[in-house]
């Protein structure tokens, strides 16, 4: 405790001294249960939240582990109020348990039960006006019967009042379907195998792995363990086809066993891959494809990029609590703040591997991150100053001064595969024309997108200009440079996806370079600070460059 890198404060914030020799070790242990709030150059601020503590508890870490981390790395004694608060908060997880009564030979039983050995806790929650209607009987002093439809709903409500229930009610096995990994010349990496084993034991929950670390293989491993009909929900059609290709390559599944359910194709097979978009599509005010959720007796539902799960899918997922659910993501951060719904309805975090740790093992590429600050010419600066607040970000993000900087960066990395990423279609058009490079936007037909991605993979194209459609689930392993010209108002989840495009291991052995172009002294710079929190969370330093220095 003599000179650690952490300072633990009584308001549940934890300060990390970035330059301390033990900062990286402390960060990795702290990130298990605390969330990074601010990340300027020298001191990073973490906050210990209830949800963070409960996610850590569900992943197998107890209060003693968390307090040991703080004691080991703290410069000063941990405030007693924080120690007591952590112990008591962690102790709330699992005091309430959801179980299912055994089914008798005559078919009776099988009721959902909310049970607790703490009579006071049970009395408190049963009196809650939002929970009371969900309880339909009391078979014993330590238990209530939960209405059959309300398994997901009661977990949401219990979390809101600070009593997260551990769901031990079990899962329907679904229709059995033989699925095996085809480990011909390859095997699951140790962390992938560990993630599959922990998920299989827990039954439902979220696995957090960096982009490029093989989340799809974790999904395939879970399918091989459960050997049941599986519904896989993905962000878009390109992602659906990449999942299909990977499953055909890595498992015993054949093309006849895998169906695509999207805007273009409506197939229902033992393994069906559907897009979030089709699931939330409405016709005459009603969800048009809800029947997909009951089309087969699914034994496993996989949610790819679970941090992007559209809000309506939470409501649909509340009715799917009897099915095993696996969420895959690079970050649990949701820009809409609905992390609690992921915890309640998909499941708690079961496994989390730090990016830098997997990089150190050689499974993802090392990366260096740069923020390039660009000065606006006097005329553009005046236009920005006179603009309405809601126009300023677009003016700063699409500043023409960024075009020349992009050119210089492309020249600097000649011979490498370069992705140039923008938010605005007119800016993407200008960039593609200025660089004489192909572009991919949401308007590009799926077949054409796949052709361009493939040309980029094999090296026929070295520069590709893309919109945010390339944020998600696109496999471009040889991309070693990303130049982010504009983004979504400082979205941390977007930063995760864009950095992730570069982290897949490369045959070229290039160190990845991730550039973000920022208009100096504008809201563009303010929003960048939020995105940088994500880089700092994962242990990546970023260097600030002046655009003028690139010309030197």
Automatic annotation (TrEMBL):
Transmembrane segments: none annotated. GO terms for molecular function: helicase activity; hydrolase activity. InterPro entries: ATP-dep_DNA_Helicase (IPR050615), ERCC3_RAD25_C (IPR032438), Helicase/UvrB_N (IPR006935), Helicase_ATP-bd (IPR014001), Helicase_C-like (IPR001650), P-loop_NTPase (IPR027417), XPB/Ssl2_N (IPR032830). Residues 405-551 form the Helicase C-terminal domain. It is an enzyme of class 5 (isomerase). Residues 196-350 form the Helicase ATP-binding domain. Its EC number is 5.6.2.4. Keywords: ATP-binding, Helicase, Hydrolase, Isomerase, Nucleotide-binding. It catalyses: Couples ATP hydrolysis with the unwinding of duplex DNA by translocating in the 3'-5' direction; ATP + H2O = ADP + phosphate + H(+). It comes from Microbacterium arthrosphaerae. Belongs to the helicase family. RAD25/XPB subfamily. This is DNA 3'-5' helicase. Pfam families: ERCC3_RAD25_C, Helicase_C_3, ResIII. PROSITE patterns: HELICASE_ATP_BIND_1, HELICASE_CTER.
